[in-house]
Amino acid sequence: MCPARGKPLYTVENYASIDSVLYQMGVVRNRFIARLDAAFAGRGITTAQWGILRTVAQHRGNTAAELARKFRYDAGALTRMLDRLEQKGWITRSRDSADRRCVVIAVTPAGMRVMKAGIPIVVQAHNESLAGFTAAELAQLKTYLARMQDNLAPAGADAAEPS
Q1: What is the DSSP letter of 63?
Q2: Of 126, 161, 136, 159, whose CA–CA distance to 36 is shortest?
Q3: Burial of 114 (0-12, 13-18, 19+ CB in 10 A)
Q4: Cα(135)–Cα(133) distance, rounded to whole angstroms?
Q5: CA nearest 110: which of 91, 125, 135?
Q6: pLDDT tens across 6-61, in order?
């Protein structure tokens, strides 16, 4: 703990995992994903697949290594997911012209339509999760979360991005 940041908020004596902020954030994340999974059910796509499509479509990762790092997937799990997305015609994989060892992932027009069709579903889930919040409260929450991200960021490196 950095002395400039004040005294610790958690101590061995007062710590209860179920009351910790990160535990609560995990519960929120799990419930959000469950809500999305239910909304995506019957549409031929999972929340995890949609996250990969979105990330590649937004040019925030276009190799398996980048996606594995961003989503914290092991190589085998990510390869299986990419196989499924490719079989559905939603992505292509091709060798990088500058480095033949590297495989570049791109979203197909069909994949782009699927990704865009998911945006209203994700927006609805976000709005449901924020029911009762004001715009000011949301802005404040975002500043708190940004501060936590900064506190946890590895020195000199970009932190992994959530899905």
Answers
A1: B
A2: 126
A3: buried
A4: 7
A5: 91
A6: 788 888 888 888 889 999 999 999 999 999 999 999 899 999 999 999 999 999 98
Fold for the domain defined by 21-129: Arc Repressor Mutant, subunit A (1.10.10)
Query: What pLDDT score was predicted for residue 156?
Result: 57
Q: In the chain, pLDDT over 90 holds for what percent of residues?
A: 66
Among all chains, which residue has been given the structure tokens 């499924």?
84
Q: Check: CB of residue 89 under 8 Å from CB of residue 111.
A: yes
Rounded CA gap, 50 and 40, in Å? 9
At 136 the three-state DSSP class reads: helix
Q: Measure Cα distances from 153 to 5, 109, 148, 159, 160 in Å.
A: 16, 35, 9, 5, 9
What residue segments make up the domains of the chain, in order of their start? 21-129
- The pTM of the full predicted model, rounded to 2 decimals, is 0.82
Please give the mean pLDDT across all residues of the chain: 89
**Residue 32, SS3 per DSSP:** helix
Q: Report how far residue 134's alpha carbon sits from residue 146's, in angstroms, rounded to the nearest whole number.
A: 18
Distance, C-alpha 124 to centroid of its chain: 17
